[in-house]
Amino acid sequence: MNIVKYDPFRDLRTLQDEMNRLFSGSLSRSGASGGAGQDEIMRGAWSPQVDIFENKEQIVLEAELPGMKPEDVEISIENNVLTLHGERKFEKKDERDNFHRVERSYGSFTRSFTLPPTVSSENANAEFENGVLRLKLAKREEAKPRRIEIKATDNESNVQTTKVSAKQNEAEDKNKTANA
Fold first, then answer.
1. Measuring CA to CA, which residue among 58, 48, 157, 62 is closest to residue 110?
2. How far apart are CA 70 and CA 8, in angstroms?
3. Which run of H or E residues covers position 132?
4. What is the CA radius of gyration of the chain?
């Protein structure tokens, strides 16, 4: 397992590379050949679209990877950094094929996401269906919301119970063990 260093300027360099590719690519496409060059097809830097959301139990990451297979993608988690790495290869069906336009992106990609400390990577679950990778990361028990009963007495010595939502923390655990 490799240690992943955080590089705050990586996204900025990626943006600069994409802008350079955009301007150089538009000039080469307007040339005499009228199509994308072989080096552009092979180089084709791309990045899959990703949605990340959470519910009470887990954080879910969904990545669009059309035309790829599960064995083309690697997922790793190190030091609370989730990394998706893979490659979509350009497969020319026949040497006699002459493409007029190639708009889909090909090549390798790497996406990294910093996970919050409330996530447990122990029970990570990944599914791949219809070109969508779905990765589920369970939240730690102490991060999940729970209900706590509040007991109060009124003037007539009747006990009333009210339930409220709160996050579990260490102070509550200490109070429970001290009262037990």
1. 48
2. 30
3. strand 132-138
4. 26
